Each structure stands twice: as structure tokens, then as C-alpha cells.
Amino acid sequence: MSNSAPPPASAGGTGAPAGSPYDWYVRGARLLDAGHAAAAAELLGRLVAAEPTARSARETLARAQFDAGRYAEAAASFRVLAEASPDDDYAHFGLGLALWRLGRFRLAREHLAAAAVMRPSWDAAQRALRQVDATLAARAEAGLPPDGAAAAESRLDGRTDADSPGGGADDSAQARDTTEADGDSTGAEA
């Protein structure tokens, strides 16, 4: 059996997925759960375009983008969630993880620290924060700039982290793995 997921079915050749937005969400979530993150991101992206205020759709889209390795897009999606609800620990966590993958360690630390403070018992957030702190310390000890090469390259256009797409997204996969031990949805390990 192939690991590639079929493209979402379209309704009458219009390019729109078949069914209602709720159907799109259910199919997108199932694709993500089955390990087809890129296909899920495509379908969920259409859903978020049609229903931009649907938080659960945007969160699931951000997770799919992250799992598909589309970290800048995941960061942008998580940023929208964090800005709309500054007390959303998961949005900050996802944003922090995505920024971490983008080499934006200082901003990643800010968002991971926010998630860790909001939910001190969340082991995944605490671990991710410690790892980013260790990365920052190692870079300082080695005389390297705090942010990585990928972050520097993304700034060649003159934009700051705050201006750039994904400047402030958290890792979604880490946040959503369900752990039996603490009962949290925590995604992949940091």
C-alpha cells in the first residue's frame, strides 16, 4: 500500500473539495492522523480560506503544516492563533516550535516560555524551552549569533522576525501528541 494520499475529491470539477466545510475538516484531520500531513494541509488550507475564523480548523492546519515541514507557514498559522488569543498556551507552543525549526531561537524562546508559564506541568513545553535555552547558550559560547543561518537568510529581504511569515509560530506536532501520563495533547517531543 502506498504512503501517498489521494488528492481531496472536488465537487463537480470546480476545484473545491466535495462536501461541506465540516466534511473538509473531518477529512483533513483524518489525513493528518494517517500521516498525510501535506495532503491535510492542502485541504485544511482551503477550509481556512473559506472559514478564516474557525480556530479548530486553523490549529489543525498549523499542525499539518508543521508536520509537512512547512515551518514558515505553520508559524504564520500559529501566530494568528496566538494573536487572537494571547492566553492560548498551545498556540504559543506551536509558534515556538516552528520558529525553533526556522532558526529563530530568541523568538522561539519567548513563545515557548509563555507556553511553559501558562501551563507549568506541561512537560513537552518545559523540555522544548530547556532545549532552546541550551541552543542559545551553546551559540553564545561558540561566539555565534543567537539566531541560526536559516533565520539570517530569511532576513535578506530586510524584514524583521515580526514582519516575516511565520515569525512567531509554535511546533504543532510536538504539541498535539497525546500523552497518557499527563493527559495533555502534546504532539511530538521537542
Helical content, roughly? 55-70%
β-strand percent reads: under 5%
Coarse structural class: mainly alpha
Shape: elongated
Kindly, what is the distance between the CA atoms of the first and last residues, rounded to a whole number of angstroms?
30 Å
Question: How many separate helices?
Answer: 9
Radius of gyration: 17 Å
Q: Can you give the mean pLDDT?
A: 80
Architecture overview:
Helix 4 (71-84) packs antiparallel against helix 5 (89-101) and helix 5 (89-101) packs antiparallel against helix 6. This protein is elongated. Helix content is 58%, strand content 1%. It is an all-alpha fold and 190 residues long.
Short description:
The chain is mainly α and 190 residues long. The chain has helices spanning 21-33, 37-50, 55-67, 71-84, 89-101, 105-118, 123-141, 149-154, 172-176, and one strand at residues 169-170.
